Amino acid sequence: MERIVGVFILAATAMMFGGLAFYLRQTAVERGWFVLKVPYVTYLRTAAGIKPGDKVRLLGRDVGEITVVELMPPSSTLDVYVELFVVDTYAGYVWSDSKVNVRTRTLLGDRFLELTKGDFSGKNGRLHESYHITADRRIVDVYDPVGGGYKPFRREDQRTFFTLAANEPPDVSSQLDEVVKQAKDALPHILALTNSVARVMSNTAEATERLNGLLNDSQPIVKNLATITTQLKNPKGALGDWLIPTNMNVQLSQAIEAANHTLEAANGALTNANAQVTQVATTLDEALENLAQITGNLRAQVDRNTNMVSEVSRLIVDTDRLVQGLKRHWLLRSAFKNDPANRAQPAKSAKPPRPPEGKR
Hints:
- The chain has helices spanning 2-31, 172-217, 219-232, 238-243, 246-304, 308-328, and strands at residues 37-44, 55-58, 61-71, 80-87, 99-104, 111-115, 131-133, 139-144, 149-152, 162-163, 165-167.
- The chain is α/β, with parallel strands linked by helices.
- The strands form 2 sheets. The protein has an 8-stranded mixed sheet with strand order 10-1-4-3-2-6-5-11, with no helix packed on it.
- The longest helix has 59 residues, at 246-304.
- The radius of gyration is 71 Å and the shape is elongated.
């Protein structure tokens, strides 16, 4: 009986130690005791919303954890030192061009770190792996961006950790403070705007009141216009009767009729004058044609009788000589005497009267 109890106690103890070992292994796996942790370092402006133990994300998945968040010494130009690690399964995604983006998790100011995937295709220049990791999961070398090569890695020396550049936007509290400051600065302008709006509303109310008064005063004018337009709708020419009275309309009709008769008479006179002018022009044209024929015939005769002009001239000269000779002949001289009526009276010499002898 005692042997059976001893076996039972031994089996229970073995099961207890087996469960403890399984628990320890699962805890170690969950906490990454059996995985290689690749360390990285980055620097931030503020540690707000970030604490050790927060998960580090890559492409939407948890790939590591923040281990250290400390303030830098006062003499340093940097503000907050952040140390983190990435498990070796995802360390191959982090290259020399990878960065740390600080994201906002909640509106209360909680933040987390997200790594960017390295572009090892070479499109953006030659890139390098952040670490050289051997097949037996040991970190041998770390890339040095300053020297452009790899240098030995020592886990106990934090200065050999690969440093990632950080893209850190202002935290939510700073942004809210900036918004509050801008709102505070804009408050006087808003108050001035509300005062201006109040004055505009007051002026608008006063303008509407005056407009109502004008509308009330314009009602008789509108009625008169309605009456006038009603009269103008009369198809018998209400506008003409309004502008031109009946007696003036009769006089205008008579004047227009008289002017019409005058224009008809003038049109008839112009027609007769046009006919007469046409006839005179036709007669003158015929006379000019006859004159042209006469001159043409005369020129033709002159062209045919070239000696006719000289003979006529000689005949006229001889005739003149004959007449002059007859005038000088004693027998025919009296026949060529001048007409007594046309002869000029000889002028008598006027002698002055002799004075009387007694009055000398």
